[in-house]
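so i finally got all the pieces together for this one. its two components total, 976 residues if u count the protein bits. some of the lines might not be protein, just check the labels. i wanna see the whole assembly predicted at once instead of chain by chain like last time, that was a mess tbh
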Amino acid sequence: MGTLLGLGAVLAYHDHRCRAAEKSPHIYTREEVRSHSSPETRIWVTLGCEVFDVTEFVDLHPGGPSKLMLAAGGPLEPFWALYAVHDQPHVREILAQYKVGELSPEDTAPSTVKTSDPYADDPVRHPALKVNSQRPFNAEPPPELLTENYITPNPIFFTRNHLPVPNLDPETYRLHVVGPPGGQSLCLSLDDLYQFPKHEITVTLQCAGNRRSEMTRIKEVKGLEWNTGAISTAHWAGARLCDVLAKAGHQLCGTEAHVCFEGLDSDPTGTAYGASIPLARAMDPEAEVLLAYEMNGQPLPRDHGFPVRVVVPGVVGARHVKWLGKVSVEPEESYSHWQRRDYKGFSPSVDWDIVDFDSAPSIQELPVQSAITEPKDGETVQSGEVTIKGYAWSGGGRAVVRVDVSLDGGLTWQVAELDGEEQRPRKAWAWRLWQLQAPVPAGKKELNIVCKAVDDSYNVQPDTVAPIWNLRGVLSNAWHRVHVHVTP
Amino acid sequence: MGTLLGLGAVLAYHDHRCRAAEKSPHIYTREEVRSHSSPETRIWVTLGCEVFDVTEFVDLHPGGPSKLMLAAGGPLEPFWALYAVHDQPHVREILAQYKVGELSPEDTAPSTVKTSDPYADDPVRHPALKVNSQRPFNAEPPPELLTENYITPNPIFFTRNHLPVPNLDPETYRLHVVGPPGGQSLCLSLDDLYQFPKHEITVTLQCAGNRRSEMTRIKEVKGLEWNTGAISTAHWAGARLCDVLAKAGHQLCGTEAHVCFEGLDSDPTGTAYGASIPLARAMDPEAEVLLAYEMNGQPLPRDHGFPVRVVVPGVVGARHVKWLGKVSVEPEESYSHWQRRDYKGFSPSVDWDIVDFDSAPSIQELPVQSAITEPKDGETVQSGEVTIKGYAWSGGGRAVVRVDVSLDGGLTWQVAELDGEEQRPRKAWAWRLWQLQAPVPAGKKELNIVCKAVDDSYNVQPDTVAPIWNLRGVLSNAWHRVHVHVTP
């Protein structure tokens, strides 16, 4: 089961063995288990080779029904690995009451893959991820897991791949750092990178397309249908890019320059993913740009750039190049498609017939953002009191200073409580989680819940989506709105 | 007349003399001239001691009727000083046709002032300024003058005073720079300041209360009723604060610290104006914080801090302390009222009964801003084509990358043309002026013109004012809206 969790995960449930069945148990295939994933079909889960019908337990689940439902029709292990609280005898005793049978023994072998498929070697992913695209793999954690932890567990960190995941050998991996004109280039092994001072920071990454699905509702856009989950937070460790560039002989120059990154992922024509950031940011020790080789204390998972990726705090995910192969300093931005013909913002009036990509700057720092993760749109909440949870973040190291929440669509506001780590001035690289416990106004049958954040430059989110709509569906940071029903 | 223009202005009209009248001319008092300031009463102006009735000329004025109307009932000299194009024989010939008389000779003497008034010694101001408060003096240029020039002429630069204007002698002026613990303090004369490398930058200053009047329309706020003109741009020169602090022995420390400024303006109890900025900004040469002694090539006008003021590019006007007397480095922000009990942003839900000033950060960098300066609200525009002009700016050195303009209240948008100087990356300290020539849709009887700007972090302005309303009426940066009628 360990591969299900990716390299960074720990299998929490490890002492389980199939006991010799007292009587001959019912035998089910995984396919049969999968078909039991709703109250109507009953809710089955597996642990090891045992099958359980937990329909009656769902509403009793201490973490809430929605969390258990994420595992409906499949194995519990990936979720128990995230939440180690489950690995206790009394939990297994509860579960044992619901046993209905066992898995067919031949159903545990991994399925064979077609080797002609360039994605055949992609890693196995966590089942909780909501997949927006399988090839290339793009997926986000469900909202109710996203803000369960300040640090997003590696297996459910949102994944944004542009190409198949390369399978790199850490022994032979080399990072090519092009030297300045007349200087010497570096060819760094992982061990070489470990020799630089190890720098650790907590950084939130957000895809430019986070919350794109809200723009699609206004008018069609080109891009993956991200919900609110194309954002996650990890504790990263690695060498500082400024140290590596200095070692290669680079220094800040008077003229504008750019550090270009190339990934080792490539399409069938050999074109690699690429992006760039301004040299001034790369060389600034205070900007803390990393060549990261650890994510939450583990080697990077393959989906997140093993063995080395760039982490550019405060900057759009697209510049955090994974599977990093090459670093160079150039007078111009990267000529990559993803730097020059994508990841830029335009006026709502611009369509594909008239768009001029050279007229807009590439997205670097992102604007202030927030979203509600609980309750979910369309959910029914109890009258009395409602708990609202979410995240808020801003680009460029700007700290979130306040989140306002409305229950009436924006007419009146309450200030949410900010959780999470205290933020360093000018280096607020990570999000704030927030929550609000608010009385449900008596007699209300529904609530239009809205959130908006303010950062320390006092930038705010725009009220509505349509006026920031753009043909690529990026930079979707209008007030987040969730409509819920109230039980009578 | 020269004093009318402030120290920085040049009197353009200088060879005018009253000719011996051919016949005995009509003699008028200034008071009488002042009463002729509208088409109904006829429009009079003066130049030197001559009085002109320019009612018939207003619509022929090449700069537009609204510009000439700014001088209605008063002298032309302050406006001719701003627009030197007037200082030509053929302009005076045109004017001569409209002569109706001369000013009473005893009416040129300056009026006497009450010496018990602490504001009695305030400088004489330019008549074009729209005064929001006389004591202390707070005034803004009218919108149609504001965007006439990329650099705002000194006499009409918005003025935000908190106290009477001190009258300082440049010979005896001293700036006290407190040294680090155990170190030596500096006591700098103007000549000492001139010894530091002279640094020159173009910087836009904006009051936190700019556009407050739009918040007042939602609900009462405490503060001056600024329209869109509490923002102006000048070319500043002075010593870099980082050089002066370094000379005093200060350096960046690991812990957070603040540079506190004290003005030489003070109230009757001796309390001076004060404010602070983070030490990290003060010490960063790239942040270009100035101790400015020149404004647009002239010594600072008295209203703008003569002889020395702070200029903190990208930061709210309140930190640009004028008539600077003292600089110190402290572990905490300035204890000044204006740092701790003012110039902070709050949720719309916070009123004076519950406000906790310690709960919000002091405003430093300002959010992205834009406004329409032409046409004016309520104006009637010609059918056919309309020209829309305005300004856009963002705090923190973030460049304005786009201004969207709508003629239909925000349903559809057009991209405006950005004028003004090219902006340096991360150091876009000055505004962009913009304009749009757009066809007026056929049959439209009115237009709801709206503008919104985007900065290079892709932050945008919020759609509406109410959700950013706050009890002090600061940070008013919603879309700017102007309603105009169209001639049939």
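Residues 8 and 154 of chain B are 6 Å apart (CA to CA).
Chain B has three domains: 2-108, 175-359, 369-486.
anyway lmk what u think
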